[in-house]
Design goal:
The protein is of the alpha+beta class and about 600 residues long. Helix content is about 25%, strand content about 30%.
Length: about 600
Amino acid sequence: MIHRLSTLFVRTLRDDPADAEVPSHRLLVRAGYIRRAAPGGYTWLPLGLRVLHRIERIVREEMDAIGAQEVHFPALLPREPYDASGRWTDYGPNLFRLQDRRGVDYLLGPTHEEMFTLLVKDLYGSYKDLPVWLYQIQTKFRDEARPRAGLLRGREFVMKDSYSFDLDDEGLQRSYDAHRAAYVRLFARLGLDVVIVKAMSGAMGGSASEEFLSPCASGEDTFVRCTACDYRANTEAVRIGTPPAVDAGTTPPARVVDTPGTPTIQTLVDVLNSRDDLRRTTGTWTAADTLKNVLVMLRNPDGIRQPLAIGVPGDREVDMKRLEAAVAPAEVDAFGDADFAARPGLVKGYIGPDVLGETKPLGVRYLLDPRVVSGTAWVTGANEAGRHTVHLVSGRDFTADGTIDVADVRDDDPCPSCGSAMSIERGIEMGHVFQLGRKYAEVLGLNVLDDKGKQRVVTMGSYGVGVSRAVAAIAESHHDELGLRWPRSVAPMDVHVVIAGKPGDDTAATAGRVAAELSDAGLQVLLDDREGVSPGVRFKDAELLGMPMIVIAGRGVAKGVLEVRDRIAGTTVELPIGDVAKHVIACCA
Ligand code: ATP
Ligand code: MG
């Protein structure tokens, strides 16, 4: 089919939109694929919608190929099932809640575990019905704290979500493996490189889970790769393991020392190293010898706030994403001046373990980084301005309420699996596969009769793909300084034919003939037949719009040739007019 640019509902923009921080957002808006309609909500224009539909089709084909069956739920859902699972509350401010005219509570579905569980419960009752795999491609709603980067993190977005239902753990493993393999195939077809990483299960509950991340500098997730073994994990899910306890037999007794003007780790280290009475027998003091106690406020889904203190070696920071993942569904707020004012026992910059812990008068829960093992000695705040305690030994001089593994993970940190160096990268979460287990089936009463006539709770898996996010993620990995560069599998059109001559010459007629030939061969052809638009603007737009092939009918027509650019390979050739269609068709095959 031929689509004429003169009538296509699209306007390209010369300038980047002011709110666009990442290339995909800039390019999709500039090229007229999407328009912002609301915070975190985008309108699909014809070209954008074609890409979305092509992605949906590939996702559908791969789900159908493993035997999953498509259904479709409403987005507007009743409250009760989400009360039963606890997610009406646990989702906290991320859930769009609303009421109908009679004051009955509803929500806009953020994901549909509850509804699928109830649907299967409605219709199935025997082990003979299982396994069954159901999926939908549907609009989801989440009141994200930070909608950003256009389609990458919306408040309304398209997700493919599937759910597997099995009688036993082996069945669940098979269902999980089938989905995982389908995801490998579908992301390859979308032209997305993905790394499969160990993941946290977040608000979903459940056990084993992996994410498919597309490596990309503008991704919001960070993940580690071991440089030696096959360990790959989202940094949220990295568990560093507990080092062996240390013998503190030779560590001197703890002592409080004056360290005026040392509210930061660096000022403290400098003072320690400048003092004769604190000189170490071996080496100098470093930030790693200090214990930094970081305070945050946790906000539970019910709105109740609780303080939390986290003790980490002073050369590390608390990684807020790791912390958020560890304490979910609670959210993390900064520990503000008002929070300090309400607890005068906490001296900013000089907080030490003496005042921390649930059993202490302040009642501040205190958790330690796993590196702070029994026997390790630390320099830490003495809970008075300008004073620190040295030689404070974990287990001997202080204890905490437990451990929490949320310090930052860095390049060259040891791999939890083999001890070799790890490297850190950023990525975009494209898909997520979970072994949910029996959590939802239990609370919603999804049982089937087994072959002995006994009631058995069904075990479930849940598998998501970010379909609208994929449009942006593909654009992130398939563009250059000139514009988009769609892989053939998802491009809105196969070929862009540009008329670049003067009025009255043969270029328009030649371009029209080639376009017709391509269209007859089944290709989707975008023909730039706009009047009053200079060749320069046409070339720029062709590059911006990003079809995989561009055919230019320009000055060469007089010599009997057309220019053919392959945007993916980055090549340009001149071909006799009669050979162009054959060449393009072969490239698109
Ligand atoms: P994230 O960690 O990025 O917030 P999530 O873990 O909450 O995502 P899931 O519940 O696993 O997301 O949803 C399945 C898939 O849906 C994700 O892998 C992602 O591709 C996509 N997705 C999730 N949230 C959004 C969003 N706000 N905008 C666009 N796509 C999203
Ligand atoms: Mg996820």
